[in-house]
Amino acid sequence: MFALKKMTKEMHDEVLAMVEEFYHSDAVCHPVPEERLEQTFADAVSDDPILEGFVLTEDGKTVGFAYITEYYACEVGGRCLMFEELYLKEETRGKGYGTRFFDEIMKAKPEVRRFRLEVTRSNEKAVRLYERLGFTFLDYDQMILDR
């Protein structure tokens, strides 16, 4: 049976192993320092609701992890949810876990007006999944200023 579990401190080693795989894949366009990955996990399991972490399981076995965060967008006139990261172990891909994850989060967040994510267009399997779920590309280019 598929389940989403809130991330806990006790899941550190298992989650960080998947995070390392995610950040060494073509889903990420630049390296991220290990201390930031550790900080993200710590934030996801803290009491601060800005970042939520989930572990995806099937029959008690971990199949992936996800991070989400919410914010307000003026052009939407309401809450937006950003799917920050979604990672599925290679051997579990294509089995419907991604679809189930999105379905559960979207049902659990009826107040959210827009769901958003980042994807590299070269990640064709992910793009197909997201388009099948109703996502479309925005025409914005993003700019950043890191501190």
Q: How would you sum up this structure, described in words?
A:
- This protein is an alpha+beta fold.
- The N and C termini lie far apart (42 Å).
- It has helices at 12-23, 34-44, 97-108, 124-132; strands at 2-6, 52-58, 61-73, 78-88, 114-117.
- A five-stranded mixed sheet has the order 1-2-3-4-5.
- Strand 2 and strand 3 (61-73) form a beta hairpin.
- The protein has one domain (2-132): Gcn5-related N-acetyltransferase (GNAT) (Aminopeptidase, 3-Layer(aba) Sandwich).
- The chain is globular, with a radius of gyration of 15 Å.
- The model has no long low-confidence stretch (mean pLDDT 95).
Give me a quick take on this structure.
It comes from Laedolimicola ammoniilytica. This protein is 30% helix and 27% strand.
Question: Any guess at the CATH architecture?
Answer: 3-Layer(aba) Sandwich
User: Mean pLDDT, rounded to whole units?
Assistant: 95
Number of domains: 1
Number of strands: 5
Strand order of the largest sheet: 1-2-3-4-5
Protein name: GNAT family N-acetyltransferase
Keywords: Acyltransferase, Transferase
InterPro entries: Acyl_CoA_acyltransferase (IPR016181), Diverse_Substrate_AcTransf (IPR051016), GNAT_dom (IPR000182)
Organism: Laedolimicola ammoniilytica
